[in-house]
Write a structure and sequence with these properties.
The protein is α/β, with parallel strands linked by helices. The protein is built from eleven helices and nine strands.
Length: 307
């Protein structure tokens, strides 16, 4: 936390506090209110979709490019599902699933999620950890752009002006959420996939910007903390990130000094009980660290298979 606060100070970013009507609300981070920008140029949404469709076509034995909904303005919500289509599951066995997503805040594009699957499935290149994860029945979902309306407009929110990362249902907070089609679409899709294919979402990670850190639950309260096996699972990934990137890890309250109700991390942990993260990339620089992210995920693949 000391490291991160020092970094924030050097960037001229401050933490501002104000009162909200909700008894669960805390201080909010001022860069959030100012609509932070990743400093990384956004590529056309159509280009990203075309590339993913081409990858699914070339890797038809283990990749599907699936529409799971439409945005407020009617843009397609798309996910790449990667799995071994020849895998036959044993009755009662839960297969491990991972959800990797980006640009839920439309102006926080890091150019990571839209390249990761191409790195894992590069022709002529062996990736043992990735292959072993798929061979064990693992499924990986890549959502390159969660908020296509905000992404296309270079705006944090969706076309209704809603912050999608405040729109997930958190039962412990009494938050209903899912007022927006983008959040309903992905969570309904993953829940349906989990039921129909006997999946357990072992890890979700949403790529954000811009201060460098790994955030895990809980965000909705300062009073509840991870303990036992849940804490250990999150710390294992946190240590991987710390060693690879020299980024701190902890809750949003630990790292940034504010809380938020309705975030995806809290939802996925509450729903599936395993691992849920937001990766905060470095402004204007995270796109240069793709190979570190490849290593990160290879280690997470191995970690999940081992557990």
């Amino acid at each position: 936390m000391k490291f991160l606060r020092s970094s924030l100070s050097s960037l001229g970013i401050t933490i501002s506090f104000f009162c909200l009507n909700s008894p669960m609300a805390f201080a909010q981070f001022s860069y959030e209110q100012a609509h932070s920008d990743s400093g990384i140029s956004r590529r056309p949404l159509a280009t990203i979709h075309q590339e993913f469709a081409g990858l699914a076509s070339a890797q038809g034995h283990r990749a599907d490019w699936i529409q799971y909904g439409t945005s407020v303005s009617g843009k397609r919500l798309m996910v790449l599902k990667v799995h071994d289509k020849n895998f036959r599951n044993s009755p009662g066995n839960l297969r491990p699933a991972i959800l990797i997503s980006e640009a839920i805040h439309g102006n926080e594009y890091l150019h990571i999620t839209d390249r990761l699957p191409f790195e894992f499935m590069k022709p002529g290149q062996q990736n043992p950890a990735f292959e072993a994860f798929l061979g064990a029945g693992g499924v990986i979902y890549f959502v390159p752009v969660m908020n296509p309306d905000g992404y296309s407009a270079g705006r944090r929110e969706n076309a209704r002006g809603a912050d999608l990362n405040r729109d997930f249902r958190i039962q412990a907070a009494g938050n209903q959420g899912f007022a927006q089609p983008e959040t309903r679409g992905i969570t309904d899709f993953i829940a349906s996939e989990s039921m129909s294919s006997d999946l357990l979402v072992e890890a979700s990670m949403e790529y954000h910007c811009c201060v460098g850190g790994l955030i895990h639950p809980w965000a909705y309260t300062r009073q509840q903390h991870l303990t036992g096996d849940q804490l250990a699972r999150h710390q294992e990934v946190g240590e991987i990130v710390s060693n690879l990137f020299s980024y701190p890890y902890g809750t949003v309250n630990d790292l940034l000094g504010y809380g938020a109700i309705g975030g995806s991390d809290d939802y996925y942990l509450e729903k599936y009980g395993r691992r849920a993260f937001s990766f905060e990339g470095a402004r204007g620089a995270e796109d240069k660290k793709l190979q570190q992210h490849v290593i990160l995920w290879n280690r997470v693949f191995d970690l999940i298979r081992a557990n």
